[in-house]
Every structure is written in C-alpha cells, then in structure tokens.
C-alpha cells in the first residue's frame, strides 16, 4: 500500500495547523517546560482521513486514524487506531484495523500492532485474520506475521504460529502448528 500521497497531504495539513497555531499567538501563552524534546513528535495530526487514487482517479486505498505522530529523528510515524481499506478492481477488498501502527521511513512497510484484524470485504465467504501483529508491504501487497494467527470463515477456522499472505495472488501460507476446523454446509 502506498500511503505516500496521504502522508504528503497530512504533512501539508500539519504544517498549516502548526503555522495557524503560532500565527494565532496561542504558543506565546504556553511555554514548553521540558529540556529534552527528542521524545516529542515533530508534528501530530488528529482525526486523519486520506484517500490514495491511481492515475485514473479511482481509489487504491483509504486511510483513517485517530492520531498520527511523526518523529523526525527516527523518521518514523506512529498511528493510533488505524483503519486501512484496500481496493482491488475498483471495489473495497480488504479492511485492516489495529490499536496502533507504525509506518517505515520509505512508506512501504506498515506494522500493525495489538488487536490486528484483517477482513476480506465483498466476498460471499470472506476471510478474517486476527493476530497481535501484522506487517503489510505496500509495494508487494504481502501480509505477514510471526505471531499466532487465526483465520476465520463462515465455514470454520484455521490457526497457526505464523502466516504469509499474498494479496495480489490470493494465496495464504500457514507456518507452524497449523490446526483447523471445517463445518460442512447443510444440504
């Protein structure tokens, strides 16, 4: 997933918000009391929404979050309560949610942490992944986790110690101690 456009837009909005903050004189009334600013974000955006479109103007992904905090020294963004929707063939295909995510410096790797849920949308028998951590490569569209994962469908579930899924190919590889249940449909 390329969120570079969304992040560029949010970065621009952050600059406008910061400029308005200082121009309005609010900063003159509030003094920063800490001497060590290395743990403070360079900017923070609250209630963020973004849409990335392709060359034809059709959505490739949408992105919502409660907050995005960028730390320049680590060149890292921390995102709280992210909701990412991936589109395939002009339709919403997957929804990724978590308590927190971090975005790598080159905007290609999104690491989702804590109560991660990946739901397949717009399918008669959708898959749903649940785990505590999941890494999504936006260029290759590969999801992977080294944490225990459960994949559920209306007909059953499979659990394993790790997983790798190729979103473009539609393949899922379960890694280690794979267990599953399958419920036959009534005739």
The gist of it:
The protein is built from two helices and 14 strands; from the N terminus they run H-H-E-E-E-E-E-E-E-E-E-E-E-E-E-E. It is mainly β and 187 residues long. Residues 1-7, 9-23 and 25-32 have low confidence and may be disordered.
Task: Please supply descriptive tags for the structure shown above.
13% helix; 51% strand; lipopolysaccharide transport protein A fold; 187 residues; single chain; disordered N terminus; 6-stranded antiparallel beta barrel; mainly beta; 14 strands; globular; 2 helices
Description:
By secondary structure, the chain is mostly beta strands. The chain has a single domain (4-28, 41-179), classed as Lipopolysaccharide (LPS) transport protein A like domain (lipopolysaccharide transport protein A fold), CATH 2.60.450.10. 13% of the residues lie in helices and 51% in strands. It has 2 helices and 14 strands, in the order ααββββββββββββββ. Strands 2-3-6-7-5-4 form a 6-stranded antiparallel β-barrel. A hairpin with a 7-residue loop joins strand 7 and strand 8 (128-137). The longest helix has 20 residues, at 4-23. The protein is globular and about 60 Å long. The termini are far apart. The model is unreliable at 1-7, 9-23 and 25-32 (pLDDT under 50).
Share of helix, binned = 10-25%
Number of domains: 1
Highest CATH level, the class: Mainly Beta
Radius of gyration, in Å, reads: 19 Å
Shape: globular
SSE class: mainly beta
Protein topology:
Layout: H1 4-23, H2 26-29, E1 43-53, E2 59-71, E3 76-80, E4 83-88, E5 91-97, E6 100-103, E7 109-120, E8 128-137, E9 142-145, E10 149-153, E11 156-160, E12 162-166, E13 171-175, E14 179-182
Antiparallel strand pairs: 1-2, 2-3, 2-4, 3-6, 4-5, 5-7, 6-7, 7-8, 8-9, 8-10, 9-12, 10-11, 11-14, 12-13
């Amino acid at each position: 997933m390329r969120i570079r456009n969304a992040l560029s837009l949010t970065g621009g909005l952050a600059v406008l918000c910061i400029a308005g903050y200082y121009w309005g004189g609010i900063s003159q009334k509030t003094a920063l009391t800490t001497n060590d600013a290395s743990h403070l974000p360079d900017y923070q955006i609250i209630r963020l929404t973004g849409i990335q479109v392709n060359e034809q103007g059709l959505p490739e992904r949408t992105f919502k979050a409660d907050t995005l905090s960028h730390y320049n020294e680590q060149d890292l963004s921390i995102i709280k309560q992210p909701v990412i929707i991936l589109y395939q063939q002009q339709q919403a295909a997957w929804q990724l949610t978590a308590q927190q995510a971090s975005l790598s410096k080159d905007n290609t790797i999104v690491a989702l942490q804590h109560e991660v849920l990946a739901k397949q949308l717009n399918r008669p028998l959708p898959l749903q992944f649940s785990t505590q951590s999941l890494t999504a490569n936006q260029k290759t569209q590969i999801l992977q986790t080294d944490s225990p994962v459960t994949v559920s469908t209306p007909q059953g579930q499979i659990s394993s110690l790790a997983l790798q899924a190729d979103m473009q190919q539609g393949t899922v590889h379960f890694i280690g101690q794979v267990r599953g249940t399958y419920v036959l449909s009534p005739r």
